[in-house]
Each structure stands twice: as C-alpha cells, then as structure tokens.
Amino acid sequence: MYKIEVILNVILSLMITEVIPQINYNADCYEAIREVGTPRIWRNDNDDFPLVTNFGFDKNNLTIYDNDTSTEETFLTNNIPMLSCLHQDSKQLILWIKNFYLERNSGNSDYKMSFKVEDFLRNPENYSTDQSREVDELVFKGKIKNGFFIEAGGYDFEDQSTSLYFELKYNWTGLIVEPNPKHYTNGIKKNRKIFSAKTCLSFLPRPTVMGYNWKKEMTNALDKDVQLMRIQCLPLYSLLEAVGNPKVNYLSLDIEGGEFQVLQTLPWEKVDIEVISLESHFLGVRTPGSLEDLKAYMNERGYKHIPGAHKVNQNILIANQEIEGYITNDLFVRNDIAENAGLIHSHDSIVKTEL
Description:
CATH class: Alpha Beta
Radius of gyration: 22 Å
Helix content: 25-40%
Number of helices: 11
Mean pLDDT: 81
Low-confidence stretches: 6-19, 218-224, 351-355
Oligomer: single chain
Number of strands: 18
Number of domains: 1
Strand order of the largest sheet: 3-6-5-4-11-12-16-13
C-alpha cells in the first residue's frame, strides 16, 4: 500500500509540474540573477508578486539611421534580464507584458495619417497595400469583418503597413510590434485602433535580451561594424496571450531575419492562426533555415505554401554583402482556410479552384 501511495504522489507531482511551469534556470537567467543580485525567493512563476524590484532599465546613446541620414539620440529601453527566467506561458510574464510593454489605443481619437482615410478607401492600391490586398483577394475575399491581425515590423504603423488595409476597410484590430523607439513613437501618433508593443520578438520560447542592429533593422549580436543596442525581446506567444489569445486571421512577419525562428517558438496546439505572410529573402542568410526548411516545417503543422501569392517588390533592391536581390515575401495558409478559399498550389504558380 505504501508503494502505491509513493507512486501516486510521484505521478501527482509530475502532473503539477506540467500544469504549473517552474522557473527556467537557463544560462541567461543565472547571469541575470548574479547581475541584479536578487535572491531566488520564489518557487514557481505563478506567484502574484513582482519578479524583481530592480528593473535594470538601460539608457543608450545611439545613432539611429533613417532614410540614409543619422541622428544621435538617447533612448530608455525597458530591459529586464530576469524575465529570461520565465517560460513564454508564465502568468507572471503575461502580467509584466500587460503592465510594462503593451499599449492600447482606446479608439476615441481620429486617425492622424499622412492621407485622408476616404482617399485610401477609394483607391487602396495607391498606398502600398499590395501584400494585404493579395491576401484578401486570394483568401478572405472581403468576407472577414472585425478580424484580428498581428504585424511584426510595424515601422511607423503606416508606410507599407501590411495590416492598415484590413483595419481601415474591414474594421479589423490587432497587435503591432516595432522595436525601434523612433519608429514606434511616430507610429503611436497615428492613432490606429490597436494594441502595440515596443519590443522585438524572441527567437526562443522565453524572453531574451539581444543586440539590435539599427542600421539593418534586425537582432544581430555578431555584427561589430555598427553600434548595437541591448533590447528586450519577448515571445510572440506571450504577447498573444497578453491580448487575450484571440483568433489571428492574419500574421505578418517582417523582421529582417529570424522569421523562421519566431515561428518555431509557437505552441501551435494553443494558437489559432489562419494566414501567415513573412519576409523570406533573408531565410538561411542572417539566421539558419532555408525556405525549403520552412515549407517542410509549416506543412507538418497543417499549412499550405502558396507560391507566387505575393509579387516580388521590385521597388526596393537589396544590395549588400549578404545578398543582392529584391524584397520577397511568402504566404502560408492553414489547410482548412486554403480549402475553403478554393486554393491549391502547383510547383511554380497559384491555381485557384471554383467551389
């Protein structure tokens, strides 16, 4: 009888451990504990008290590049290295994101765009909306009203935005993520009806503090030719949880490298994401994983790659030491959504079937 009780206690302990994630004592976590000097006074990451009182905010004197010009500015970055101790589904982490990183426009103010909204709605093709219109015409067909998007790499929330079309035309809302403080500040002024976060997306299923290369607009701690800023990166899933984990009709990833890594952090069984567009010209260049690797990965998770769905942007030429070519994007549609939209794909072009 005693042995049975011991076995049951072990099983119960394992079940509790799985339901209540313990602190992840990874190398970054241990380093943060040493730097901050915070005692390990918690037993699990679901307690309601704050994780640390010493936030460790950093001031950075940075050269910010904008349209081939540079300006010297000082920014305050909300880096909390101790967050690296928390799993992406940690209740504490979600609370920290809600309180310190997530902003929401209540929608009480009018838009402050560089154009008139009525002009945009009359001729959206005049406002760099190719990518979002391609998704709408191929997949949603104008039927989805009041949807939800996530746009990572939001720039100023207007110029070449991949979500603005859905917001203005179909009353969607969503989450925009942009790590550059100058771009983010300009974006907030547009009064879009959204959640927003001034952060980058983590390549791991937990928060990380990474070196951010402002000139290349990406996280790249190995590049020594430009000044890097240490910036707090948060998991996409944690941000999604912070806004209530709604159905995501459209996810747009334009983070200049690392799109594949971000997708690999998602617990796919816990999210509802229908359509994904991502910038693909840096796949296998700035981060590991080719387009073929990504297609195989997404296929295993129930998504169809739609070749040729997004036209190559021949207005922007990439010419540097890494690659030379034009900006390219690829589209992935969840199988059930692709079937409902009448989409199948051949090896080199889109084939549409009439339902």
